[in-house]
Write a structure and sequence with these properties.
The protein is mainly alpha-helical. It contains seven helices and no strands. The mean pLDDT is about 85. Keywords: Membrane, Transmembrane, Transmembrane helix.
Length: about 180
Amino acid sequence: MTAKMMMNRIRKIIIALLIVDAVIALFAIIFFDMKIFINTQFGFISASLVMLASMKSYARMVDARVEHNIITVDDSRDVIDLAEDPYDLYGEEEDSDKTLKEVVKDERQKNKENKRSVAQTLKDTKAALSIYRLGAYAILILGFLYLNRQDLLHIGAYIIALSIPMLVVIYVLVSSKKELYKT
């Protein structure tokens, strides 16, 4: 996926989130009291920030892996084979003529080859624990604590508002994927 396509998807997601937030705000103001409005706004905005920050940090993590040529997918086996035989117990390789010591030695060698260095792990951790994600989660936690401390927390409205951005993001991504397959 190109950067332009990614930015276009993020733009669509932000527009959809703003529209849905406006509808929720109007709905909360018209049909409920100010307490529900505040809960829906805190929940919706903080959950939206978490979703957008997670998408951004995931994209950065994938870009970092591509840049450093870190491939973690085993293409030698298909998805069905992985689901039915995750440990490759029924694999086509016959190791029956090897002794137990040789098998253990081979498995240890495979594990040593698959281990990643501390530098590689730190590069991935920097992307996964980005300042965007940490900031978004801090806003989510501090918003909840503020509402709770000020006796404004209406847990039903807050939880519903937390779940709506996830549904909006899924809808936009699925619809953009359908558009991509049409062209």
